[in-house]
Amino acid sequence: MDVALLHGLLLLLILPVLLYRYCATFHYFCKVTFFNLWVLAMATLLSPFAAIRGRCVENMKLLCAAIRPLKHLYGIKIEVLGAEHLNLKEPYVIVCNHQASLDLMGMVEVIPKRCVPIAKKELLYMGTVGWACWLSGIIFIDRQRTGDAIDVISQTAETIRRENLRVWIFPEGTRNQSRSMLPFKRGAFHLAVQAQVPIFPIVISPYWDFFSSKEKKFTPGTFTIRVLPRIETRGLSPKDVPELTETVRKTMVDVFSEMSSNPCRDWPAELPLLPSTGATKGTDGVWHDEDTTGTSD
Ligand SMILES: CCCCCCCC/C=C\CCCCCCCC(=O)SCCNC(=O)CCNC(=O)[C@H](O)C(C)(C)COP(=O)(O)OP(=O)(O)OC[C@H]1O[C@@H](n2cnc3c(N)ncnc32)[C@H](O)[C@@H]1OP(=O)(O)O
Ligand SMILES: CCCCCCCCCCCCCC(=O)OC[C@@H](O)COP(=O)(O)O
Predict the structure, then answer these.
(1) Rounded to whole angstroms, how far apart are CA atoms 297 and 286?
(2) Measured from the CB, is residue 136 less than 6 Å from ligand 1?
(3) What is the UniProt domain comment for this protein (predicted)?
């Protein structure tokens, strides 16, 4: 009886290990659960410290430091190209493609100082995670209430100039693991035009070879983040927003396709990041991709 019990216990211990080793779906769920638990645990541990400072963008540093170790735990290598473009003292808007929650790992590698993401309101209700996000100054929008979301974005246009902030937006508006990018929402571009600040597109290469929520795949791997040169919005008005949105999207989709078809990741750091894809062409000729190196804050 005792031996049978011991065998049962041993099996109970070994089974998860075997499943983790040999069942890809179980492996995937373990890794995703660990990711969420990590975020939850960090938010719970660090929010009280962030609360001492109150709601402020400086708490983003804490949030980023909490997420950074995850890439080591998952064996994920991240290459960043063109980060020097972000060395600009003025406020700006970053637009980035959004494949999965894993984007958080890439975001914390490149996010500049005094930069806050725009996030869906639902995050606010995720217990201490919501609290941590609120304390870090993350801007929340209700995607179901376009009018309210537009109001928040309009207020943000004033805030970023007044408080010298940068804003990180996923213009696809939702996670997307298809072979291309979803149509872009226009909020980010209205924001940049309203505030008359530049836009920096950031493209994260596809996760296909190591992560897929559809195929339940999650292995170690490598991805690349490319920061593209700035796109000016000075002189543009709301009527230019649709064309601006399409031009930026096309530029990003082209870079994404190039990254998908060239997985050897041997691009030189000084590659002309925006070839003649149109991002330098403005509706009134004012866009350009001038080098901002050396203006670091
Ligand atoms: C303390 C340490 C603790 C450590 C613990 C760690 C915890 C870490 C955890 C977490 C970290 C944080 C992670 C953050 C990441 C979150 C990611 C997300 O949540 S992604 C979802 C939200 N993002 C968006 O949805 C994009 C922004 N959305 C938009 O821009 C949309 O445009 C929106 C919502 C404003 C409207 O959406 P529409 O679906 O109605 O789409 P449209 O076609 O773009 O707009 C409709 C009309 O409104 C106009 N419009 C849009 N924005 C406007 C504006 N600002 N002004 C004037 N008109 C505007 C447009 O031009 C359009 O009109 P016409 O068709 O052109 O006539
Ligand atoms: C009380 C339960 C707490 C559970 C804690 C789990 C926290 C994990 C939070 C990771 C946040 C990553 C941000 C993210 O990637 O959000 C998704 C949205 O961009 C788009 O949403 P959707 O694709 O439209 O659902």
Answers:
(1) 25
(2) yes
(3) The HXXXXD motif is essential for acyltransferase activity and may constitute the binding site for the phosphate moiety of the glycerol-3-phosphate.
Q: Domain spanning 3-261 has what CATH number? A: 3.40.1130
Half-sphere exposure of 296 (CA within 13 A, CB side): 5
Instruction: List residues bridging with 225 in a β-sheet.
Output: 80, 204
Look at residues 203, 197, 169 and name the one whose alpha carbon lies nearest to residue 185.
Answer: 169
For the chain, the residue count is 297
User: pLDDT (tens digit, 9 = 90+) per residue, 4-59?
Assistant: 888 888 888 888 888 888 888 999 999 999 999 999 999 999 999 999 999 999 99
Residue 292's CB is within 10 A of a number of other CB atoms, namely: 19
CA dist list (Å): 57 to 53, 138, 292: 10, 8, 23
Does any ligand 1 atom lie closer than 6 A to the CB of residue 23?
no
Quickly count: other Cβ atoms within 10 Å of residue 100's Cβ: 18
- Cβ neighbours of residue 103 under 8 Å, at least 6 residues apart? 96, 170, 204
Q: Is 36 in the pocket of ligand 2 (CB under 6 A)?
A: yes
Instruction: Tell me how far the alpha carbon of residue 201 lies from the centroid of ligand 2, in angstroms.
Output: 22
| pLDDT above 60 (res 289) | no
